Amino acid sequence: MLLPAFGCFPEVHGHRGCRGLRPENTLPAFREALRLGVDAIELDVVVSADRQVVVSHEPWMSASICRLPSGAPIPPAEARQHNLYQLPYGRIRAYDCGLTRHPAFPEQQPWPASKPLLREVVADLENLTRQLGRAPVKYSIEIKSEPAHDGLYQPPPAELLALVLAELQALQIVPRTTLLCFDKRILQLARRAAPTLPLCLLIEDERPLSEHLAMLGFAPAVVGPDFRLLTPALAAQLAGQHIRLVPWTVNEPADLRAVLALRPWGITTDYPDRLLALR
Q1: What CATH code is carried by the domain that includes residue 246?
Q2: How far apart are CA 158 and CA 156, in angstroms?
Q3: Who contacts 81 (Cβ-Cβ below 8 Å, separation ≥6)?
Q4: Alpha-carbon 40 to chain mean position
Q5: Per-residue pLDDT tens over the stretch 139-178
Q6: Number of domains the chain contains
Q7: Is residue 98, in this structure, part of any structural domain at all?
Q8: Which domain holds residue 174?
């Protein structure tokens, strides 16, 4: 069985580091999550014009959290004009994405921060892990990909995957990494290109699990549903197929307790401190 043994606590996955506490997908968020004691760092990656693997949820500068190099806010209607796939990383780094508190997270502490490279994040966390004397952290890396974005906000799927896999291999973190994606094309390619790498199918709609798996063509190691879709029946269905359950993004204490009752393999949360307090 892939369920944790009765009484065992699931893995704590810090969503975008710890978005409820620090600016998402930034070094301050990842460092704080590591200090709190997460088991896995969850982050998102996109690709720049010069084919660097950049840590970012959107393939553009979000008007909610980012500022222009001048320090001025980005008008929401113009956010997608700041397309990371059309900007070399040197220009991406000039934007600040940490000083503006996300409006949905009042506890978040603003911090000057740019969008880091994946290699920068891993090097920093591996060093901090040694300083803290703790076990190596795992990585849950979501490749941001949508068919409608091909050629506009991202390279073709095969190239996108190849860039990310090359980075993981160079960083020597493949044994501690799970690759996440909503885009089934990426997971299908990854299964052939890296057959030993655990893959996670992310789900955010109410289509039955059987349909998702039929479209994917295989049973992934992990399924990550929006926690609001999670039911005892779905949890049992995944357990019956030996698929690990790691729902997202569970933040409120009552929701955390309800999800814990279903004995998931892991829980992805913006507030790892809240989840760790229940350990």
Answers
A1: 3.20.20.190
A2: 6
A3: 60
A4: 10
A5: 999 999 999 999 999 999 999 999 999 999 999 999 999 9
A6: 1
A7: no
A8: 11-60+116-276
